[in-house]
Amino acid sequence: MSDTTSTPTSSPATPGAVPDSATEALQATLAAEHAAVFVYAALGGQASQSAQPGLYGRITAAYRLHRTRRDELIGLVRAAGGEPVAAEPGYQLPADLGTPAALTARALRLEQDAASTYAYLVASSTGATRAWAVTALLDAAVRGLGFGGRPETFPGL
Prior knowledge:
- The structure is a single chain.
- The protein has helices spanning 20-46, 53-79, 100-124, 127-146.
- With 157 residues, the chain is mainly alpha-helical.
- 43% of the residues are buried.
- The chain contains 4 helices and no strands.
- Residues 1-20 are annotated as: Disordered.
- Residues 25-157 form the DUF4439 domain.
């Protein structure tokens, strides 16, 4: 699991007592966002702002949104009474990220993974947390289209 979107979002409402399964789903989603932020930073370092301004812009926007979502998830985990899972020291990257096609393919995979992760959070939560997760799931699905994905009836499943 690893990713998310490119449009600004508002912070989710602080949920009340969150059931254990929801807390576990929040932690899994947070872990995936940690990975997405790391990978998008690497993709941004490989994209050329001058040679591929569209791709560079989409990657940069996705990086910023995933960073925001990660920070929101930290708040949600704390509000649920949990200690947010820490980021790993590093994440595995594909060996070849030297072409726009490779960058686009990896970004698409990140968004597909994000949609799956957010679908899990939607299924495991209620109330404001679920509404926030639905928005994040839809954002990931739409962002994936910008990286060459195809519309899906049930994104993330």
